[in-house]
Amino acid sequence: MCTSIIYTAGDKYFGRNLDLEVGFGQKVVITPHNMPLEFREMPRLEHHYAIIGISIVRDNYPLYFDGINEKGVGMAGLNFDGPAHYFPAQKGKDNIAAFEIIPYILANAASVAEAKKLLANANITNANFSDKLPASPLHWLIADKTGASVTVESTIKGLNVYDNPVGALTNNPEFPRQLVNLSNYRSISPATPKNTIAPELNLPVYSRGFGSHFLPGGMDSESRFVKVTFTKMHAPAGNSEVENITNYFHILQSVEQQKGLDEVAPDTFEYTIYSDGSNLSKGIFYYKTYDNSQINAVDMHKEDLESTELITYPVQNEQVINQQN
Ligand SMILES: C[C@H](CCC(=O)NCCS(=O)(=O)O)[C@H]1CC[C@H]2[C@@H]3[C@H](O)C[C@@H]4C[C@H](O)CC[C@]4(C)[C@H]3C[C@H](O)[C@]12C
Known about the structure:
Elements (H helix, E strand, L loop, with lengths): L1 E8 L1 E10 L6 E5 L19 E8 L2 E9 L3 E7 L14 E4 L3 H8 L3 H8 L2 E4 L12 E7 L4 E7 L2 E6 L4 E2 L5 H8 L38 H13 L7 H13 L9 E3 L2 E2 L1 E9 L4 E6 L6 E4 L11 E3 L12
Parallel strand pairs: 7-8
Antiparallel strand pairs: 1-2, 1-12, 2-15, 3-4, 3-18, 4-5, 5-6, 6-9, 9-10, 10-11, 13-14, 15-16, 16-17
C-alpha cells in the first residue's frame, strides 16, 4: 500500500510513502531539460521541464515511481490493483503508456490545470515497458504549488480525472468511494467530545485524545486514507523549511507500515520502504528510508539542468546514529 499527500505550510510539500515487500533498486533521478524523452505513441520531446524523483532507469529511460518538476507540479503512482484498466492505443487519442504518464505530465505541465488539459484527450495504454516490466495497475495523485490536486484513474469505464479536495491518495477502492467513506468519520476531532450518549451519566474523560478514539489505524487503504486526512487537515504550518519538512514527514509517518504487520505472503511483509517529500516551490527533494531515519535532501537547482544526461543519486539506506558521548 502506499499513501501520497500534499501538505500546505506556506510552501507546498508533495510526496509519498512507498509500501511494498521488496524494492526495485530505485534511486533519486533527475531528468534535465535537454535529456530527450521518448514515448511509444507520442512525439519525442527534445526539451521539457526538468524532473526529480524516485525512479529506476532501464535502457536510459526513467521509470518514475513519483516526482516533481521545476514548475512545482508533483505526481505519484500508487497501486490500484483490480479497478485499474488500461486500453490498447486508440486512433485520435493521446496514447500514453502507464509507465510513461509521470514523465509525460511532469515534462509538459506547469500546473494541475495544464495537466488536466493534457489528460482531456488521453488514453492510458496497456503497453508494457518490457517483458520483465509489464504495465503496473496504478492510479495517480497530481498536485501543484498552488495546492490544487487531482486523482487520475483509468478503469473499465475510461479515464477519470477527479478534483481531489483532500490532497491525499491511498489505494483501493476508487477515489469517489474513499471520499464517501470519509463521511463515516465526521465526528473525529482533536477536541474532547461532549458526552452525548447519556448526558445524565458521569462518563469521566480518563484519557487525552478521546476525539480520535474511533480513528481507524489499520494498514488497509481505507483506514490510511481516513487517518492521513485527519492528520494532514490538522497539521500546523511551521515557521521554517526545517519545521515544515519535519511536520510533513510526521504526517506520512501517521500511516507508516512497520515491518511485521502486513503479511502479503507467508512470512513476507509489506512495509514503508521509503517516504519522500519535495518543496514544490524550491525544487528540493527530501527522503527517508525504513532503515535510515535521517532526512536526506537533493536540490534539483544545484544540478546542471541543461544537461542531456540523467543524473542519479543512490538512496542512502544506512542508519546514522548521532553518538552523543
Ligand atoms: C507497487 C508500487 C506502488 C506501491 C503500492 O501502492 N503498493 C501497495 C501494494 S497493495 O496495494 O497493498 O497491493 C508501484 C509504484 C510505482 C511502480 C513502478 C513504476 O510504475 C515504474 C515501473 C513501471 C513498469 O511498468 C513496472 C515496474 C515499475 C518499476 C513499477 C513497479 C511498481 O508497480 C511500482 C513500484
